[in-house]
From TrEMBL:
Keywords per UniProt: Hydrolase, Magnesium, Metal-binding, Phosphoprotein, Zinc
Species of provenance: Natrinema zhouii
Region described as Disordered: 502-521
Designated name of the protein: Alkaline phosphatase
Domain of life of the native organism: Archaea
Start-end of Basic and acidic residues biased regions: 508-521
Keyword Phosphoprotein assigned: yes
Cited InterPro entries: Alkaline_phosphatase, Alkaline_phosphatase_AS, Alkaline_phosphatase_core_sf, EF_Hand_1_Ca_BS
Record-linked SMART domains: alkPPc (SM00098)
Family per record: Belongs to the alkaline phosphatase family.
Necessary cofactors: Mg(2+); Zn(2+)
Single Gene Ontology MF annotation: metal ion binding
Keyword Mitochondrion listed: no
Length: 521
């Protein structure tokens, strides 16, 4: 069986024969300390491939994320194939399991209406007493935040995701998505102790420990079009940490720059850059926060690439950085102005510093008559991008590997190509144990024989079980699937850690999945 590939070069825990806590270390005075990682901040730039980072740096100068030295590459393919969606990519990042496109933190076949829920990193953090939070510029019920605290077979079930949130005990939930919470659900949220917030002034005045911020009806308005009534992503992040850091057991926070992806779907370069730049402000904030402590891990990742943005459409210096930097509206806002009767040339040129040709105006006019809700804004993206010096491959997701960066205790430069699932398990290991197990092949083989014979139990077995997260495929994974649901997931790891695993693996009725291709695991 292929063991997990871990992306961080971390020190040995001494789990074989250890008597102290994994990851314990000594301070300058020689006093023993506990686990190195108390707080985890996961920052996800949705759809943020390499080129959006590069183009944004051309426009705004080097980004904070480009200063990070722990950098690796994550493959993104899902069980559906080489091009993932945000639900499957997020499920891989949150649970360590591949999923079919559209599935939210569950394991099952593509059309399974009753799949197996998979414990997530956030829920793992909750089990250890940590405060938790989710922040996004999408609807908070959208795919990426949803995978960390809900379990549904279809990402479109946003009303159910909202209901699960209210019961989730997540301490901070902030983003858009007001439309998914009716009055009854908001009343239930308040009964569960949430202070419900609707605008920036509510956030500034908030006094509760548990916050539900719904700052737009649907997705949070693009930063280029946003007014001061809507808090920025950095403001939401700072407010979340201000609440979460009071927990003595630490916290887990996921922050998503979700509208990077939406801008890329529309080939909207000025919005892509503005959303990426705002996301990088959060990265900078998180890095500065972590620098003041020795217990905070910051992970920056993209779930997939969208649109196939190219850094430049010619040799030399084709990108009009000044025009992109000074743009005053997204293409969606420009399209809305055109639909409201503003002449095409005026609508575009008063908001972005480009000069349209008669042919450009004709193309945009034709798109206005085309079918589809995004035909006009997509054509605006194509036309404006040509003038701004970039090009695009599509209006949908693409499948290349993405970058992952990290800062914090025991994070060395990454190397090799791994999968989102491996990144997830690495973060889970740091959450639970502070460091990863370091054992020889001979020790591991002996451990596998032992766990098949006697069943898993205790800290050592739980730590090593993380390397086998996935479907049950052999005697070892069958032994580690202590709840007998056909998968090894973070729930099994917790049961092993807490001593609730059965003493023998000879239980009947467990499901096994055959080992298939890389897309089927």
């Amino acid at each position: 069986m292929r063991r997990r590939q871990f992306i961080t070069a971390l020190g040995a825990t001494g789990l074989f024969g250890a008597t102290g806590a994994a990851g314990a270390r000594s301070d300058a005075a020689g006093n023993r300390r506990g686990s190195d990682v108390e707080n985890v901040i996961v920052l996800i730039g949705d759809g943020m491939g390499f080129d959006p980072i590069e183009v944004t740096s051309v426009v705004h100068g080097d980004l904070s994320m480009q200063s990070m030295t722990g950098v690796g590459y994550t493959r993104t393919n899902s069980r559906s194939g080489e091009v993932t969606d945000s639900a499957a990519a997020g499920t891989a990042l949150a649970t360590g399991h591949k999923a079919y496109n559209g599935q939210v933190s569950v394991r099952g076949e593509e059309d399974d209406d009753d799949p197996t829920p998979l414990l997530t990193q956030l829920e793992l953090a909750q089990s250890r007493g940590k405060a938790t939070g989710l922040v996004s510029t999408t609807r908070i019920t959208h795919a990426t935040p949803a995978v960390f605290a809900s379990h549904v077979p279809d990402r479109g079930m946003e009303e159910m995701i909202a209901e699960q949130y209210v019961e989730s005990e997540v301490d901070v939930l902030m983003g858009g998505g007001r439309r998914e919470f009716d009055d009854d659900l908001l009343a239930r949220a308040r009964a569960e102790g949430y202070e419900v917030l609707f605008d920036e002034s509510d956030l500034r005045a908030a006094s509760g420990d548990r916050l539900l911020g719904l700052f737009d009806d649907s997705h949070v308005t693009y930063t280029l079009d946003r007014d001061e009534s809507i808090p920025s992503l950095p403001e939401m992040t700072a407010a979340a940490v201000d609440r979460l850091e009071d927990d003595d057991d630490g916290f887990f926070l996921m922050v998503e720059g979700g509208r990077i992806d939406h801008a890329e779907h529309g080939n909207d370069v000025q919005s892509t850059v503005a959303e990426t730049e705002e996301f990088d402000e959060v990265v900078n904030w998180a890095l500065e926060y972590a620098e003041t402590r020795d217990d905070t891990l910051v992970v920056v990742a993209s779930d997939h690439e969208t649109g196939g943005l190219a850094t430049g459409n010619d040799y030399g210096s084709p990108i009009d950085a000044e025009a992109i930097r000074n743009a005053e509206a997204s293409n969606a806002a420009i399209a809305a102005a055109i639909e409201d009767g503003v002449p095409i040339r005026e609508a575009v040129e008063e908001r972005v510093d480009v000069e349209l040709t008669d042919e450009d105006v004709a193309r945009i006019a034709d798109a206005r008559e085309a079918e589809g809700p995004y035909a006009l804004s997509n054509e605006l993206g194509a036309v404006v991008s040509e003038h701004l010096g970039v090009s695009w491959a599509s209006n949908v997701h693409t499948g290349p590997a993405q970058t992952v960066m990290a800062a914090g205790p025991h994070v060395d430069p990454f190397n090799g190509w791994i999968h989102h699932t491996d990144l997830s398990v690495t973060v889970a290991a740091l959450l639970l144990f502070g460091r990863l197990a370091d054992v020889s092949d001979a020790q591991r083989e002996a451990w596998e024989r032992e766990v098949v014979r006697n069943g898993p139990k205790g800290r050592r077995d739980a730590s090593l079980a993380l390397e086998y997260i996935g479907p049950v495929t052999d005697d070892v994974t069958e032994a580690l699937d202590v709840d007998g649901n056909g998968v090894v997931d973070y729930r099994d790891v917790l049961l092993i850690l807490e001593g609730d695993a059965p003493s023998s693996s000879a239980e009947a009725g467990r499901r096994r999945e055959p080992i298939g291709s890389v897309h089927d695991r």
